[in-house]
Amino acid sequence: MGRMLMTRLTQLTNFLAANPHAIACELTSVRGSSPREQGTFMLVGPADLFGTIGGGALEYMVIEHARRLIANGKAEEAMDVPLGPEIGQCCGGRVEVSLNYADADMRSALAARIAAEDAALPHVYVFGAGHVGRALAQILSLLPVQLEVIDTRREELDLLPADIAAHAVAMPEAVVRSAPEGSSYVILTHDHALDFLIAQEALARTDAPYIGMVGSRTKRARFASWFKTEGGDARALEQLVLPIGQQGLGDKRPAVIAALAAAEIMVHIGQREAEIARARAPRTKGAVIGR
Q: What pLDDT is recorded for position 76?
């Protein structure tokens, strides 16, 4: 048994239910430097917000403008804002922002958009809900990933915040076999033998942007010896990040390890996404290979 993640779609649904009058604010044009890209939107209610268009003076102006529209009963407007000294923001670009009343059609369209974006987020599985696992899960829950925490111990999972997806599983290594393509795996259970089994399954896949295990160089050496004895390909060991959070700080506090590991995971995911994007991009006509 487990509990499900509160997705952005759930958050959007809750926001819309609580705000029958709301304005959708979207960056329709971005020229030069801007805190967010074209197409980014946020929803402004009389007292609540969903999303962000980048914060700072720009967002403050747009929120204030949207709430005036709500108060005056207006349906739509547009803003053209230079991101420079005029508004106390130093991006240097220029944005156009559309402000439209979030009617039923727009609400449906936004829900469909958020659902599609949620479904496309990369999966990250955290195996182990001990001190480091819980800290890491809380950080990852703020990032654009689909997070699931797996443990054999229900009592440890119960210590996680209620909005984090968590599952008590008798054989965690089996989760790896059925995970979606492109998933990442962070292994920090209470049992080294279980860590090894999960890592063995993860290294058998070739589609993982990140496979990490908490531990030391000694643990890595022991795992490598065991892995090879079990018939594992020595080259696959190059995929394994062990110890996790290798920024050289030597700080063993759970929250610090978790923060460094979270950054490490997102870098690996970003690099894999960039590789996929480059592979899908059409070659420039007439390009000379090898020059």
A: 75
Distance between CA 188 and CA 212 in Å, rounded?
Answer: 9
pTM, full prediction: 0.80
The Cα–Cα gap between 32 and 118 comes to 28
Q: How far apart are the first and last CA of the chain?
A: 56
Q: Are 2 and 168 within 8 A, CB to CB?
A: yes
Q: Is the pLDDT of residue 90 over 70?
A: no
Domain covering 121-277, topology: Rossmann fold (3.40.50)
Residue limits of CATH 3.40.50.720 in the chain: 121-277
Identify the CA nearest to 6 among candidates 133, 136, 164.
Answer: 164
pLDDT band, very low/low/confident/very high, at 82 (cuts 50, 70, 90): low
163 CB-side CA count, 13 A: 10
Quickly tell me which residue has 């727009």 as its tokens. 106
- pLDDT tens-digit series, residues 184-206: 999 999 999 999 999 999 999 98
Is residue 8 within 8 Å of residue 117, measured between CB atoms? Answer: yes
Percent of the chain with pLDDT over 90: 56
CB 272 within 8 A of CB 207: no
CA distance 14 to 12: 5
